[in-house]
Amino acid sequence: MTERRLRSEYVTEPVPVRDAATVVLLRDGTDGLEAWLLTRVAQMAFAAGMTVFPGGRVDDSDSRLPVAVADVERVAARFDCDAVLARALVGAAARETFEETGVLLTAPRAHLPEHRADVENGVLAFGALLSEHGLTVDGAALRPWARWVTPEGENRRYDTRFFVGALPEGAEAQDVTTESSEAAWLPIALALEQGERGERSILPPTLVTLLGVQACGSVADVLAAADERIIAPVRPSLKIDDDGSVSIELDDGTRYPIPRSMLP
């Protein structure tokens, strides 16, 4: 079958690329590494029905959240960005994790799940919550892992920085966000098996991340590996075959199918 570049009927006006952050929240389980995975509700404009990690786009207010200068500098160096964006990425990662799981990644540690819904719904600013309780974002708990840029031709595009982090001691992730139909701890090996059998829809960035994390064996190993990784932006290209099937192709030629719902 002849493969071709993106068909002209899918090419639209340039879509702006928005900065985003996502967190692979991990814990050691009896059956190996576990990750907190959410299934996005079918009504979502982007990645509906897909298995994802907690995360979302960066808000302007994220760049004003309290993060230790040393942590900002470390993230800036790892993601090759300026300090303002680095602070915003760390802030967005912590805020989205709290909104979608109720878990606070702060110093000192704190548990304030009763305020989660107000933050998610915009009733209470995340920065105000931190200030009221004397907290700062624990940037050291968020280790840069990868960077993926949504291909041209998709209806929404993000420059997403992936962080890995351990579930804080005493914290409990909750299935509470309105953006997911279900959320739970899942052994990574099982999630990968379900994806292979077609029982779970996993987009390529999530799949590749799960495979990389699973290879480490334990949370401590993942965090150690994160500090040694070379983080270069992954910029896949969108391909459509003559039969209409859609995939993205990485620089090494590896292809991953994606659902038509991701296209404009």
In short:
This protein has 264 residues and is of the alpha+beta class. The chain is 27% helix and 27% strand.
Low-confidence stretches: 1-11
Could you give the count of β-strands?
A: 13
Number of helices: 7
Query: Span between N and C termini?
Result: 24 Å
H/E topology pattern:
EEEEEHHEHHEEEEHHHEEE
What's the helical proportion of residues? 25-40%
Helix/strand-derived category reads alpha+beta
Any descriptors?
single chain, 264 residues, alpha+beta, seven-stranded mixed β-sheet, four-stranded antiparallel β-sheet, 13 strands, 27% helix, 27% strand, globular, disordered N terminus
Describe the structure.
With 264 residues, the chain is an alpha+beta fold. The chain has seven helices and 13 strands. The protein has helices at residues 69-79, 83-101, 116-120, 126-132, 188-196, 204-214, 219-228, and strands at residues 3-5, 17-29, 32-40, 51-52, 55-57, 106-107, 136-137, 143-149, 157-166, 180-187, 237-241, 246-249, 255-257. Strands 2, 3, 4, 5, 8, 9 and 10 form a seven-stranded mixed β-sheet that branches. The protein has a four-stranded antiparallel β-sheet with strand order 1-11-12-13, with no helix packed on it. It has a two-stranded antiparallel sheet with strand order 6-7. β8 (143-149) and β9 form a beta hairpin. The two termini are 24 Å apart.
